[in-house]
Batch of 3 targets.
Target 1
Amino acid sequence: MKISCQENLLPAESFEEKVRIAEKIGFDAIEVWGRDLDARIKSILDSISTSRVKISTICSGYPGDLLSLDRKEREEAIHGVIERLKYASELGAVGLIVVPTFGKPKLPDLYPLYRDVLELERKLLIEELRILDKYAIDYDVYILLEPINRYETHFMNRVLDAVKIISEVYGEKIAVMADFFHMNIEERDLSESILSCIHLLRHIHLADSNRLPPGFGHTDFRAPFATLKKHGYKYYMAYECRIPEPVESNLEKSLGYVKKLIEEV
């Protein structure tokens, strides 16, 4: 298992300096934000060219909404995802993290044609993912579907929700991204949830129960880490959390805790 850190958590202004700090602390990679990548990709590539630190993933950053009522917004989202899949390929990343929508439903209730709006949304997303999968195949990167807790979205809250959608897409490059913070809210048992999607799991977000770094809350990481290790998970786990001051030393402390757990399980 390799450990990554979102770029905004690293206490530096320039990306070059963020890479230096990530390497010093002991991270294997950095997860970059998807915003403004067209203007930043050259400097990112230059910054990692002489470092052992890689780019693990791109976190969202595309415009629009895949489940918007407005066709223009859906098309913007599709185009934005395709553009960032290309950047992921250029950066050598695993793929792009995709959250289909935030908040409440935007589509109408079309009962009795569809039982409820969730059925309509699922069918729409499946068709969009069939389009996007072809680009992901061409770029040899993954679309990483991230389930989000019920307080942030009504749609795809649990890892099995993502698994069921993927099973209907019949795609080659649509995968699951599991987030420990969201799972801590939505899942009954973290290890069981990991096991239910391990065949499709290609990325993980790390945060403790309070959205602080692992080791700063009460989430039991030992059992799910053991499950990941037992089943040969070889992809990245990226820090996505709040870091209390002093940032650099607390990142180092948490990373030491995570590495020790992985070694022990």
Target 2
Amino acid sequence: MKSDVPLKIDHFVIVVTDLDQAISNFTELGFNVERGGINGPTHNAIIFFKNQIYIELIATRSRFSRIIFRGLFLLGVFHFLDFIRPSLYWRFACWLGGAQGLRDWSIKSDDIDEFCSLPKCKEANISQKHFFSRERPDGEILNWFLAGPSDRNLPFLIQDITDHSLRIPLKSNCDHPNKVECVSAIILNRDKVLKHRFKFLHYLALDESADEVLALDGVHIRVSSDKSAPMMALEFLSDGGVIGELPKVLTAGASLRII
């Protein structure tokens, strides 16, 4: 089964409580980390890879904001508001109120409206697109649209308004000291994420007859049957650097492995 609109993995989201500390930690792990800028109550940093996929480290700009988001999340306010008035914003509010770690991922579409109108996507109950923007440290303003399915186990969608190269600079420093070249695999927990495997495959236009090894945009998607495994983990391909599991004390709890 082929998608009517080609899909590409755009980025992965790691939520952290202290952005400066996260930048220091990932730099210690051998990654080049660039400050991304400010978006409302949040600020972020970016780790770019040669295939133009990136990791976003995101945090609230103040400890007080983190406390507020955390309290509302623990009280179930965001889930209640999402129930009575579904919105993409509650998904992101849950990022900021939930635990640190690898929390989400995004796929890029050149036409969100067309993608969401496809018969296979209507069943996913995808939200209307929303406008977002971010100011880079150099003052450049980036604009994009986001949309997402009601099932938060499915990745959300992103479409650039400003030039794609402004958000993902082609001259970004992808030659990491740890020799990591790209994200090579996503490992999803069967029980936590793929309870409804058909919906997942249908949404991403993946082959329904495929075995447990799938691929999207050149990145393998593997399924873990280990109930204790995290919701999502990543593997990186290295060009001769140190390999192995990265210490979670430095990755904000995210399960990351270099192979």
Target 3
Amino acid sequence: SVMLDLIKEDKDFTVIFDYVCDVETHLKDGFEFHQIKTHEPNFGSYSSGKLIKKESKQSTGSILGKLYALNKDAIDNIKLVFVSNVPLQIGKKKCNYGEFSLAGLPNAEKINIESALKRELGISHVELSRVFYIHTPFNLREPEFVIKGKLLDRFSEVKNCQPRNARALYRLIVETVQAKACYEYSQ
């Protein structure tokens, strides 16, 4: 979906499927890093507390800390995106479907996140305006239906026509991604 959006915007880009941050997008004028987490519907939602909590006892950091570490050196023109199929909960309100900037959190939650990231990463400044949460509906049991639908939708938007053989287009993309994904190793 990210690639198809960039094609629609007529931007030059390179997409890298990465071991740590899942999807990297290298643009002429910056970088985007997408961390993707999928859950079963009974997971509930993410809160700012869950984003800064260590993932497990073996983990060295939080979900948000691992993502923000990509900006530890305060690189200009960087966008850090946490993508999940569950909503972000802010107080009693759930942010359903779409993109939300963490800079829009209430002050108490921003201060809590900034303090946790500073401690975890050993940095003195945190810029939450670079960090976004995207809640996307994604069918975990049959993801190919969502992918096919988005692919056909984006293709018709970009090319102003339907693909001649939608199944072949889908197969080509899936096979290419699977072939490239087999080269993913921890450095």
